[in-house]
Automatic annotation (TrEMBL):
Gene Ontology biological-process entries: methylation; rRNA processing
Native species: Cyclostephanos tholiformis
Matches recorded under PANTHER family: RIBOSOMAL RNA METHYLTRANSFERASE, RRNA METHYLTRANSFERASE 2, MITOCHONDRIAL
Recorded family membership: Belongs to the class I-like SAM-binding methyltransferase superfamily. RNA methyltransferase RlmE family.
Domain of life per record: Eukaryota
Descriptive protein name: rRNA methyltransferase 2, mitochondrial
Keyword Methyltransferase: yes
Keyword annotations: Methyltransferase, rRNA processing, S-adenosyl-L-methionine, Transferase
Renumbered residue ranges of the record's region Disordered: 32-51
Annotated ranges, domain Ribosomal RNA methyltransferase FtsJ: 71-318
Length: 325
């Protein structure tokens, strides 16, 4: 117990999306704060009150609690998968019919046999939702990456997200704790995909897929500094890095040739990536890169994403690597 600390519980950092504080306060946290921090803590408790009030009124937070989900983020991916994607796909199909070409018939972004890379996965909302959409028999698998462990942010909750995902995917779920921007972490990601592929071949599953992911998700957000412009630029940088990893750094070059692609995504694969709007000038490089490397590019604002937040999702479909003109 930490009776003296209870009054200052509101000062302990909270995950910006899930309901839970990252860990209980340690006496050291409170002692370490000198007198000069008292004014700041008053300000913080006001904003903390606003945050609690907003969480209380948020229907997605309530639904996430009722359904035992680790975060309200799951609803964003669900909406994109089950609502936005079918609409976009139908429109693209219509276009293809007019031009006489054929598109594979797909109803959802997450196909049952998909090989998914989930970047910025903690506390696990997207991985958990994706695991319910995949079928083991078809080789569906998720490799998830985060700086934090999946269950670290769920201290006050009894649910164990990793084992719930494993219940759906067994050994076809790999979690890598590390910084996605580091080479070491990227090597571990590729190693995990190689393992998934081996498992699939050993099980001799129907429709086994190759070693490359066909869907890269990034819900990564840089640690909030309190300055929204800085936060947006730092998160945009993470989004650009996810794009470069998925489609190859070459797509940021105006003379990009799809044949030179060196990214991890399979041909025809998709990228779904979060960023905070920060002006066309800042976003131009990302948008141009996406248009070079993908057949169609969309900016989505799911209903589950708070209206007052500048958060949006870039959905890039049909990665064109070798087949492009
Ligand atoms: C908004 S949360 C993700 C929520 C998650 N999609 C869900 O459904 O529960 C953003 C996550 O990005 C992670 N992140 C930020 N920078 C990262 C990096 N360089 N490498 C890996 N993860 C990172 C953070 O640790 C944080 O857990």
């Amino acid at each position: 117990m930490w009776p003296a600390a209870l009054g200052r519980w509101a000062e302990i950092p909270i995950c910006n999306l899930c309901l839970h504080r990252k860990r209980p306060p340690l006496i050291g946290d409170l002692v370490a704060r000198g007198k000069h921090s008292q004014r700041k803590s008053k300000e913080r408790s006001q904003s903390s009150n606003r945050w609690i009030e907003r969480q209380r009124r948020d229907p997605y937070v309530a639904m996430a609690q009722v359904q035992g989900l680790p975060s309200r983020s799951s609803f964003k991916l669900k909406e994109i998968n089950e609502f936005y994607f079918p609409h976009l796909h139908a429109k693209l199909e219509e276009k293809c019919k007019c031009s006489g070409s054929n598109r594979p018939n797909r109803r959802k972004l997450i196909q049952p046999g998909a090989l998914i890379l989930d970047l910025g996965a903690a506390p696990g909302g997207w991985s958990l939702y994706a695991s319910t959409q995949l079928k083991l028999g078809l080789g569906g698998a998720v490799v998830a990456v985060d700086l934090l462990s999946l269950d670290e942010t769920l201290h006050s909750c009894n649910s164990d997200i990793t084992s719930r995902i494993r219940a759906n995917l067994q050994s076809n779920f790999h979690f890598i704790q590390g910084d996605f921007t580091m080479n070491e972490t990227r090597k571990r990601i590729m190693g995990a995909f190689a393992n998934v592929s081996k498992n699939i071949q050993n099980n001799d599953s129907a429709g086994a897929i190759g070693r490359r992911p066909n869907l890269v998700l990034s819900d990564m957000a840089a640690n909030f500094t309190g300055d929204s412009d800085t936060d947006a630029i730092r998160t945009l940088d993470l989004c650009e890095r996810a794009m470069a990893f998925a489609a190859g750094t070459g797509c940021f070059n105006p003379s990009y040739s799809p044949r030179d692609g060196e990214g991890v995504l399979e041909d025809g694969g998709a990228l779904l990536c979060k960023f905070f709007t920060c002006g066309r000038e800042n976003e131009a490089e990302l948008m141009d890169a996406a248009k070079r490397a993908f057949g169609s590019v969309h900016i989505l604002k799911p209903k589950a994403s708070r209206k007052e937040s500048s958060e949006v999702y870039l959905l890039a479909l049909d990665h064109r690597k070798k087949n492009a003109k």
